[in-house]
TrEMBL record, chain A:
This is DUF2073 domain-containing protein. It holds the Pfam family OapB. It comes from the Archaea. InterPro entries: OapB-like (IPR012017).
Automatic annotation (TrEMBL), chain B:
Pfam families: MMR_HSR1. This is Small GTP-binding protein domain protein. GO terms for biological process: tRNA methylation; tRNA wobble uridine modification. GO terms for molecular function: GTP binding. Residues 31-176 form the G domain.
């Protein structure tokens, strides 16, 4: 029976990694055909980096990734307001998979519906 | 004094303070990037801005229905927009469409031959990287969304998040309102924390409101 591997990564595991380690770990798993679910996702900067690195790896048998997350919760501390610092984002659950297998069917602020298909051998 | 008059005074004061800060730091123009998913109408908008505010006959680039027509960032400097009393001098960067996947088979569905489709896909990946790199060198972003499409794409979420994290101004442009299925309200609901203007860059609808918002947001 054909199957799809789901890798569920906890917030604790992810928070102990550098941005580059996170991106490498995600891309390696997705390129192996797994669908990765992050308990808490990536920061906006990390997501931009992930897209950038994905582009460098695109080839005939790897057209890229599907990534979906709930929009992150934006928070700004009172110190941040005084210093004019940017908003701190609290990433939320994120799902990442091979583009040819993971398809998002609908997405809203707090709801994601996706279909995972088997890869043709 | 009416509340509208008070608001007008406040806006002019804000513009004057921004202008003063730019003069102090010897920065006389604001560099903004036009971002969005492929086929949202970024280059159509960039060409429209050039047509409305410069005498250049050549636009930013070609537009077409095939995704990733723009595969290199194009920049024009010193575009002066004067709207409703607000003046802003912009360096505008029209960026390639952002995407998380690029499959050459999709280009073949648009009639391109395999070799040409693969070349276009390769150039499109480089364009996405270039667009992401530009995020580090901008003062603000015009995020163009197709008002007939679902606004909750990850590309939109990533651009909004990156601007918020950098504390830089963002103006959302709900494009293609000339199409019957357009729903700019859906975009406004998706990103309520940012100002949005609904336009048709192709038909030139509502451009005055957009220019006022640009002068207000980036001036």
């Amino acid at each position: 029976m054909k199957s799809v591997q789901l890798d569920l990564i906890s917030y604790d595991m992810l928070s102990g990694m550098t941005p580059m380690e996170k991106i490498r770990m995600i891309l390696d798993r997705v390129r192996d055909g797994a669908v990765v679910i992050l308990e808490r996702g990536l920061t906006p900067e990390e997501e931009a980096k992930l897209i950038e690195y994905t582009m460098t790896e695109i080839e005939e048998d790897f057209p890229g990734i599907e990534i979906e997350s709930y929009p992150s919760e934006a928070k700004r501390s009172w110190i941040g307001r005084i210093l004019g610092k940017g908003i701190v984002h609290q990433p939320r659950l994120t799902i990442i998979g091979p583009a040819e297998q993971l398809k998002t069917t609908s997405k809203d602020r707090d709801f994601i519906s996706a279909v995972i298909s088997m890869k043709d051998e | 004094m009416k509340s509208g008059d008070k608001m007008g005074i406040f806006r002019r004061l804000k513009r004057n303070v921004s202008s003063l800060i730019r003069r102090i730091f010897k920065k006389n123009s604001t560099r903004i990037g036009i971002y969005g998913p492929p086929n949202a109408g970024k280059t159509t908008l960039a060409n429209r801005i050039l047509m409305d505010w410069t005498e250049e006959e050549e636009g930013f680039g070609e537009v077409s229905h095939i995704p990733h027509e723009t595969r290199r960032a194009m920049r024009r400097n010193g575009i002066v927009i004067n709207a409703n009393g607000g003046v802003v001098k912009l360096d505008i960067v029209d960026t390639p469409g952002l995407a998380t996947k690029i499959d050459f088979h999709d280009f073949m569905k648009h009639g391109l031959k395999e070799e040409e489709a693969k070349k276009r896909a390769k150039e499109a990946t480089e364009g996405v990287i270039e667009a992401i790199k530009w995020l580090d060198d901008l003062d603000g972003v015009l995020l163009v969304m197709d008002a007939t499409e679902d606004p909750f794409t990850q590309v939109n979420v990533v651009v909004v998040g990156n601007m918020e994290a950098r504390n830089l101004p963002l103006l959302i442009v709900a494009n293609k309102i000339d199409l019957p299925s357009a729903s700019p309200q859906r975009i406004a609901t998706a990103f309520p924390q940012h100002p949005m203007v609904a336009i048709s860059a192709l038909e030139g609808h509502n451009m005055e409101e957009l220019y006022e918002a640009i002068a207000e947001r980036f001036g």
